[in-house]
Design brief:
Radius of gyration: 22 Å
Shape: globular
Number of helices: 18
CATH architecture: Up-down Bundle
CATH class: Mainly Alpha
Low-confidence stretches: 1-11, 55-75, 234-245, 253-266
Oligomer: single chain
Number of strands: 0
Largest sheet: none
Helix content: 55-70%
């Protein structure tokens, strides 16, 4: 029997679409969960190691902070600084992701999707175990690196995977990644606030990698031609016309189906073609990178310094709830694709830069009256960042030719990681300057 003649309504109709949307939502949630938790735990990770061994030296190749002196204690600055900026955790969380996103799109098609997912699950589980049982900064940072590898490979793989499904799964993926922010930050903050130790909290979260396995292998309904366990010699293996037609529910996609057959044919992209695709992606990647540079400069360079002493929350609690409210904004905007689509990505970038500049001056001159105002600003910051992310990949999917789309979705994912990495580097001198005051 021809697999394309499957008449099961659950595999070809609305039931499959709902399952696929839910599947991508869960994949987005699980993929970004460890990454978010590590950033939410950044302040606690560094405080824990500082209290355990105040004289321990930190390997500069791991933390990128060898120029911080041990004398910069939290009591020597009006900003109540950690000797090591939380940007150290950010860099460990993003640099492996950045390296993967820079090079993997050119070779990742040789690795089957099923193998990629299993690898991501193992890396995420290992990261929770390493950080929870660590007794030194370098062990914690290594755990953060494992989380980064899992998130980076997972993001470019799942974004590429969307080309085998109807375009609405992008909304599910975007909403799920936003949900990871809220679930990760809120769950971590809530469990710590309830009295659990960071170690127990991280061990509880081992359920998340298992949920990724379930959502990928048992919830998704891929088309029969999907290369689950075999490598592909192409960056875009076109789904058969009938299968595509069964998956489609968008008039724009139906119009695409009328394009010449050769535009939907599977074939290996040459290196010059890949470079040409990357050149065309710059109009999307650059504004996305700028948005993420500004917001992570705020998150890991300024948030730790926005400390209000006469507030009912401690410094660590304020930091955790800043992260939580930021993620709430991300969730709302990443879930907005079904309601509003924003094509002017540069406008979102400029608004985020204004946020960063305003908060930089607020840290320097300390003119903000209360943490409540910062709560509102970081919520707005999350709205801008989430909107930039989900709209970027929606319009890449919409405007890229079929045969280039799988490669384009993977390659464009480098934009946010590059912005985050640059933000982490920029945060170090800022942290050092304010902590020296």
């Amino acid at each position: 029997m021809d697999p394309t003649e499957n008449t099961d309504p659950d595999s070809t109709g609305r039931g499959a679409q709902r399952r696929n949307w839910a599947g991508f939502w869960l994949l987005g949630l699980c993929n970004n969960f460890a990454y978010v938790v590590m950033l939410s735990a950044a302040h606690d990770i560094l405080k824990k190691q500082e209290s355990q061994n105040a004289t321990a030296s930190v390997n500069s190749s791991v933390t990128f902070s060898m120029d911080f002196q041990a004398g910069n204690s939290s009591n020597s600055s009006s900003y109540d600084c950690n000797p090591v900026s939380t940007a150290a955790v950010l860099l460990a969380d993003i640099l492996p992701t950045l390296v993967i996103k820079l090079f993997a799109p050119f070779v990742i098609h040789k690795l089957p999707y099923g193998v990629r997912v299993l690898f991501c699950v193992v890396m995420a589980a290992t990261s929770f175990l390493l950080v929870s049982f660590s007794s030194a900064v370098w062990t914690s940072i290594l755990g953060v690196i494992f989380a980064s590898i899992s998130a980076g490979l997972g993001e470019l793989s799942f974004l590429s995977l969307t080309v085998y499904f109807s375009r609405d799964v992008l909304g599910g993926w975007g909403s799920g990644t936003g949900g990871a922010g809220v679930a990760g930050a809120l769950l971590y903050s809530g469990l710590i606030q309830a009295g659990l130790s960071p170690q127990i909290t991280l061990l509880i979260m081992l359920v998340v990698p298992f949920a990724m396995l379930v959502s990928y292998f048992f919830l998704l309904v891929p088309p029969p031609s999907f290369p689950q366990w075999r490598s592909s010699d192409t960056e875009y293996t076109a789904v058969g016309s009938e299968e595509r037609r069964q998956l489609m529910d968008d008039p724009e996609e139906e119009e695409q189906e009328k394009s010449p057959p050769e535009n939907r044919t599977s074939r290996l992209l040459t290196f010059p073609e890949k470079l040409q695709v990357i050149k065309g992606l710059l109009k999307f990647v650059l504004p996305l990178g700028l948005v993420y540079f500004a917001e992570y400069f705020i998150n890991q360079g300024l948030m730790e310094l926005l400390f209000f002493r006469n507030f009912f929350l401690s410094h660590a609690e304020q930091y955790r709830w800043y992260q939580t409210l930021y993620q709430v904004g991300v969730l709302l905007s990443r879930s907005s694709l079904c309601c509003i689509k924003i094509r002017k990505l540069w406008a979102l970038s400029l608004l985020q830069v204004v946020n960063a500049v305003f908060l930089l001056f607020a840290v320097r001159y300390q003119f903000l009256p209360s943490a409540w105002l910062v709560f509102a600003i970081v919520l707005y910051e999350g709205l801008l960042g989430g909107a930039a992310y989900v709209n970027t990949f929606y319009f890449i999917s919409k405007e890229t030719e079929d045969r280039y789309r799988e490669f384009a979705m993977a390659a464009a994912s480098v934009g946010d990681s590059l912005g985050i990495a640059l933000a982490g580097l920029a945060a170090f001198p800022v942290h050092r300057y304010f902590c020296s005051l």
